[in-house]
């Protein structure tokens, strides 16, 4: 009768493998069965008291940023990703506070959840921050924050930090800023279909995308392949993603509407701008409402359903997979191109 590798492997053999820094592949990858993944939800009603309490524990004068990282339940010790390549965190600044300038190799975005009056300066350009605004801080761009308002402001940071950690390209530099590039003002890109005669950049020269502009665009958007109205944030100079390895968009569902089930090789972090609904991932489901944050795992059939008219922001690492020729999208029912 044949014996298994497990029963025939001696302790002496294992010691020899360990000393030689080798391990049998059949123990590293014992099966090729598909892994069931589910979405992780961070409800705003649970998060807000924790965010407010963090204000009493840390100050931007002492720590680099006052932020609470959202960590995947399956993260191993020392890991702090929210989902695979993406890291997300709630950041808060109080009136009069300043978060000092720095830059890093990671692309990052800020999506404002609550409050107004703060300003983010990116490579010398000021981006006022109001609820629902998207503010970009592309990789290796100098950025700092300060608050001129009267009440706390909270936003969600999304970075591709873990992608850079895997690639060993994680670099950080504290201020003061130097070698700041000259960039055209946002007003140069204020008319659709018209562009100034400027050189293309590897990221969007617009650092602030106001919520009001996005909502107007959603009103006129045709249905996407999943049935939602979806509008993508883009680099106006080439129509591509706003940053080299981060892509983002917003979608809207009417009351009772469901999306066509879809799956992709990319990952996503979602923010509910307004509304209530649910998302089914594989065999599991979550319920979400305004200001909740949840993840979209890769490779799983996913379907969104709105209990009331809902608008959801999505940040994704799909651009990373597209550039590596590893991006796949699949819909359960064919739909119009979106």
Task: Describe the protein.
By secondary structure, the chain is α+β, with helices and mostly antiparallel strands. The chain has one domain (41-328): Sandwich (Jelly Rolls), CATH 2.60.120.10. Helix content is 15%, strand content 33%. The chain is built from seven helices and 22 strands. The chain has helices at residues 5-8, 11-19, 25-28, 44-54, 161-167, 211-219, 318-323, and strands at residues 41-42, 67-70, 87-93, 98-104, 108-114, 116-122, 125-130, 134-137, 143-147, 153-159, 172-174, 208-209, 229-232, 247-253, 262-264, 268-274, 276-281, 284-289, 293-296, 302-306, 310-316, 329-331. The strands form five sheets. It has a six-stranded antiparallel beta sheet with strand order 1-19-16-21-14-13. β17 (276-281) and β18 (284-289) form a beta hairpin. The longest helix is centred in the first third of the chain and has 11 residues, at 44-54. The protein starts with a helix and ends in a 7-residue tail after the last strand. 37% of the residues are buried. Mean pLDDT is 91; it is low at 1-6.
